Amino acid sequence: MKGIHSQLNPKPVVRPAAPLLAVYLVLSMFAKKLKSVILSCVLVASSASAGLAATHILGDVTGGASTTQTLSVQTLDFIEFTVGTSGGPATELTISVTSAPRSNFREIIALYSGSTLVAQSTRGSGNGGGGTTLSFLGVDALASGSYSLGVSAWKAFFTADKADARSTAFFNNGIYTADFSSPVSPVPLPAGAVMLLSGVGAFAVARRKMRKERV
Phi, psi (5° rounding) for residue 183? Predict the structure, then answer.
């Protein structure tokens, strides 16, 4: 009888109510959408942060070099260059950055060796068209290697670590020219004079020998 009673009265199957199931589905869809929105925001923020800095490759400046760039609003430029790959260390190197007239920004520049700040300079006052200069003089003043020149306006933040450098400056038409002046060492005059005298002497000896042979 017990078995027959169980068959006649089966246990009811518990199912979630329809409204609860609907709420669950809506929340699941919302969570997926929210995740996509958050990921998109992160990507946009990363792109915006990366866009605040621009990098220009210049090459070796031991013999002198020049480049003209346009500094966009809130942009921090980095000019990558090398020293000594073709002519040895730069014993005299002058870096000057001059903005075009009416550029409406006050130049500030900083030199990095790797990620370490080496030196920086800021033009005191006025609008564009002035110029900022960094000079390195003396024996092995700037060793062979790779460097970065940071260029921005007067509200830039050049820190000891290049990764933290940033700019919040606002300006218009930020056209500037960066000049790298490093004179190539000429051949020493005494050595050149010795070579010249040796050549003249050898020519004179050969000419005298030819005269004797003719006689």
Answer: -65, 135
